[in-house]
Design goal:
By secondary structure, the chain is α+β, with helices and mostly antiparallel strands. The chain has one domain (14-80). Helix content is 34%, strand content 18%. It has a two-stranded antiparallel ribbon with strand order 1-4. The protein has a two-stranded antiparallel sheet with strand order 2-3. Strand 2 (62-63) and strand 3 form a beta hairpin.
């Protein structure tokens, strides 16, 4: 279980943030959080036969920076396997 704030990394500027992402194991907490979320996402996806986009035809609104994100979230539909 990840406790918020337990693995907090203090980064003083954007330049340090970019440099820290290029160095392996710059922040062990960040690495642990990314690995845990990737594992959880893969395990969820293994339980479904099909996952499809449910955003419609509208163009996504995005933030652009060090990390690009959709402002309205991601809407998906999960289809369980028949077996």
């Amino acid at each position: 279980m990840v406790v918020p704030g337990e693995y907090h990394c203090i980064i003083s500027s954007t330049i340090h943030a970019v440099a820290n992402t290029l160095i392996p194991r710059a922040c062990l907490g960040q690495q642990f959080a990314l690995t845990s979320s990737a594992y959880t996402l893969v395990r969820i996806c293994q339980n479904f036969e099909r996952i499809e986009d449910n955003n419609g035809d509208e163009a996504p609104r995005m933030t652009i920076g060090l990390v690009n994100m959709k402002l309205d979230g991601v809407k998906v539909r999960f289809h369980r396997s028949r077996s």
